[in-house]
Amino acid sequence: MSIITGNWKLDLLIGIITLIYFYLKRTYSYWERRGFASLPGASLLFGHFRATFAQKESVGHFFNRVYRGTNEPFLGVYGFLKPMLLIKDPELVRTVLIKDFAHFPDRGVHCNEEYDPLSAHLFALSGQRWKELRVKLSPTFTSGKLKAMFPTLLECGATLQNYLEKVVEKDELLDVCEISARHSTNVIASVAFGIDVDTISEPNHEFRENGRRIFAASFWNAIRFFLKFISPNLMSLLRIKSVDNEVEDFIKAIVKSSIECREKNNVVRKDFFQLLIQLRNSGSVKSDDEWDTVIKADENQKTLTLNEILAQTFVFFAAGFETSSTTLSYCLYELAKNPDIQERVRDEIYRVLEEHDSKLSYESVSDMKYLEKCIDETLRKYPVLPFLNRTCVKEWLIPGTDKVIEKGTEVFISALGLQRDSKFYQEPDRFNPDRLNEESGKNLVNKPMLTFGDGPRNCIGMRLGKMQTKVGLVLMLQKFKYD
């Protein structure tokens, strides 16, 4: 009897393994069965992302490699148990991001407010919740609001300038990456949380430490980033959070204490956090010259929950800190390699400041057009997010073909591949700000620029990020005195 039972169990096991095998084979033949060109070599477990999962290749470099390795306008690839489509043709890219946005309104990244409140931010939200929050937050980044926040950037800049003067006096080497990260941390802490910190003098300050934790090259961070974009459902199934518990606890504590302080003491400060409090209490952002808000004691009357504020503040901290610091570092690197370009930038800074009575202001920084071209060229060569992704929410016929994309299919775009393609940019690996004009970024087909995305889901904080980077560059390239 025991022998029969053992054989039965063995047969069952073999049957289960066989079913799993054929399920995987069918899953990883999806594109071939639908007549699409596809990337060969998918493994039965990780699809084409085995090297990425093993931390041997980033997701961005994977899509760039695939982009460079095919002449197809679109190519099927496989993630973890699901098909994905890489779109290479810039006309199709424009169609997905702009013209047929109704088919691709969501990013399809991890978002689960139930157990991971920091994940429910504007970048990750989908559907109607994203649309409503985007409408609410858009007025927080008007030119008037940015102009009002500019003095905060200067206050943070004074700390950086004092540090640089000491480095010059002592003739010390400067770790540009680290000092850029510390300066960006100061700015984000002040603008996003309304808290003045000095991580330049205190490199182990809790803000800097938590910034390091978010982007540390650790095993768990690699898993998080991989699953967030490639298999968000698995991330929710395994209940993996966007960040370590220490980072989540830090964000929660800072946000709660800042809200309590401002609402109890009627503190008004011209920063992003103040605008979130306006939204929370009144449901909308006031005009550019109005920063105060009526405090509502009843939590049920407030239009933003505490978790919503936590999530938006977190993404502002994480995205704003990393994007600005890396762009600042790469731009300084390219200027150091190209002293003639650096000299042109410096000459422009002198000239513009002289035209504005030697004052560094919102207007004077806005007038530094060549400096902005240098930033744009840096972002072309080194896009902060090297790929974009969208989820198809309703069946889509690829224009000019008989190929249909089914609902639920993930579509990816290689920003790094497009922006370093010699078909669109002559000598794409050369740093040449003169290649960019005022129309760059508007013409997605002839000169694709996807640094801040495009269409309705482009980066909402683009202008603030560029302004922050411009101020940092001016401080590091030009000495001046504050009035």
Number of separate strands: 6
Name of the CATH first level: Mainly Alpha
- What is the CATH H-level superfamily? Cytochrome P450
CATH architectural designation: Orthogonal Bundle
How many domains comprise the coordinates? 1
Which class of secondary structure composition applies to the elements? mainly alpha
As for the CATH topology, it is Cytochrome p450
Biggest β-sheet: count, sense, barrel?
4 strands, mixed
Provide the residue-averaged pLDDT: 88
The SSE string, one letter per element, is: HHHHEEHHHHHHHHHHHHHEEEEHH
Tally the helices: what do you get?
19
Shape: globular
What Rg, in angstroms, do the CA atoms define?
Answer: 25 Å
Q: What spatial order of strands do you see in the largest sheet?
A: 1-2-6-3
Low-confidence stretches: none
Bin the helical content.
40-55%
Beta fraction: under 5%
N- to C-terminal distance: 94 Å
Describe the structure.
By secondary structure, the chain is mostly helical. The chain has a single domain (107-477), classed as Cytochrome P450 (Cytochrome p450, Orthogonal Bundle). It has helices spanning 2-27, 30-33, 50-53, 59-68, 90-99, 127-137, 143-170, 176-193, 206-215, 219-230, 232-237, 245-265, 272-282, 306-337, 339-355, 362-366, 369-381, 415-419, 462-477; strands at residues 74-78, 83-87, 387-391, 396-397, 404-405, 410-414. The model has no long low-confidence stretch (mean pLDDT 88).
Concise description?
This protein has 483 residues and is mainly alpha-helical. It has helices at residues 2-27, 30-33, 50-53, 59-68, 90-99, 127-137, 143-170, 176-193, 206-215, 219-230, 232-237, 245-265, 272-282, 306-337, 339-355, 362-366, 369-381, 415-419, 462-477; strands spanning 74-78, 83-87, 387-391, 396-397, 404-405, 410-414.
